[in-house]
Design brief:
By secondary structure, the protein is an alpha/beta fold. It contains five helices and five strands.
Amino acid sequence: MRIMLADNRRKVRFALRALLEQQAGLEVIDEAVDAQYLLAQVEEDCPDVVLLDWELPGMAPADLISALRQECPDLLVVALSGRVNARRAASAAGADAFVSKGEPPERLLSVIQCCAEKCSGC
């Protein structure tokens, strides 16, 4: 699976990349620090999954998810946030799944796998 990371914090992107690159079959293809770069790269590369910081600068999350889907209709969007209460908003905005940044790394990996298999209720 080709994954794009979208978070404005370098340490978060570094930790996500380190985690994902240890997994067979997962490839981090790019990193975005804002909505504009993310949209441009998704248009160019059309990854399988975007790990999207819920507070990514540059665009409201719901608008960003809509724009991402216009570029790549089959794109899986996993919203990430340190605020657990963002789960409902992410679901309403069209995210395929939500993972709190406070959850264990294994949770993120299982959500990515579940979404890849098109499980319901990721």
